[in-house]
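Input.
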Amino acid sequence: MTDAAETPDGEAYLAAVTGIVADVERVGRQVAAGQIAELRVLAAAGRLAEEQGGHPHVKVRLSDMVLRSISAEVGGVMRVADRTVQRRIGEARMIIEGFPAAVAAWEAGRIVRGHVLAIVDAGANLPAELWAEFEKVAIERCERDTPNRVRGELEILAHRMHPRSFAERHQEAAAGRCVRLVPGRDGMSDLIATLPTVIAEGIHDRLTQQARAIVDTRAERADARGGIGVAFGGTAAKHSDGDGEGDGDGDGDDAATVISTDQRSTDQVRADVFTDLLLAGTPALDDTRDTTAGPLGAIRARVQVLVPAATLTGADDGPCDLTGRSPIDPATARTLAGDTGVWERLFHDPTTGVTVATDSYRVPSGMRRFLQARDQHCRFPGCRIAAIRCEVDHTHDHALGGKTELTNLAHLCQRHHSMKQFTAWRVRQLTGGVLEWTSPLGRTYREDAPTPAVAFTPAETHPGDPAPF
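Output.
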């Protein structure tokens, strides 16, 4: 717990922070008004270009020329390229004309710009005749959460409203998978792979686990003679020649020196492991021998997927949720569900609200899996770190009498877990897993439990039907 003496206090400090927050709110309203006004002006420019098309047989060509001309004029004032202005005009027309209710909600302060962009990005994939219906539901959802939190849910909503099945559209999209190289500056480039989401997430997860394994074992590897070190970030390194020995005389002291001076960040190590895997097949730091996987080669990717029961059985062909990310196709979800060794059913009575508890501090695996399904992500407002990357926190500190029960547990990422412990932010858990956060200024933020991954609906029965059990 935090000692009150360790946190800033005093009337002057609180008054200064209160003023800053008030200024941010005021400036935010002004910025929003300016952004909306700019969108309307740009949309008007696009309509003007379309209206000036002239003869029906040459309308497209003339309107395009008018649009280019207007874009160049506006670009001169905005000091940006005319191509950029033309693209922004198209985006402005989509937002203003395609989703007017979302703009109105933004103007009224019910949602923010990020919400509008999320609504447009998700809804634009639907046929135009469904936009009004989609944005009505989307706006209501956006009013209760942050843009980054609702984006995935809006995508799933749009997928379910689409007249074509998600599986069919995913199959077409997967045909466009590719790898492309984008040259950068200072001798660097971006290697971009467009892949099915669950594959991309798995690749990133495995790279992260391997990078952390390398960073966390630096000391013990430096003590072990004969260790092979790699430091793409600037430190000279010996590379394995395939037989587990370093090039040259194989002296382990040199390798230990390289490892002990390795100061790479996790991002740098992740990039280096990625390079090694693609160029050499296995990380150079791995002690893989023939078909026997070493500590890094043995690491397998992990993803957390929520699969509706109807989709799992094949009764529904809608999208599934890669928790904290975005939708994935049902065929991949079914494959993952069939191959996993930790699949189990979770039963939660929505009527009685049965609480599972234990007298120990440690959270049993069954409760942990239930909490992962309930929370889905870090429970601090706006955070989307997946639950499998978070820590299970006792809302009321266990050392101060808090119980290890579902009504006193919630997932927090390391950043927000530390903030709860070492700052003046406070939290209490209400009925139904709702967290109520209180800021140092006394502002309250409710963090509702995510939409349940499983929903139960009464089945239609007829006289003479057999009992369901």
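The first strand starts at residue 178 and ends at 183.
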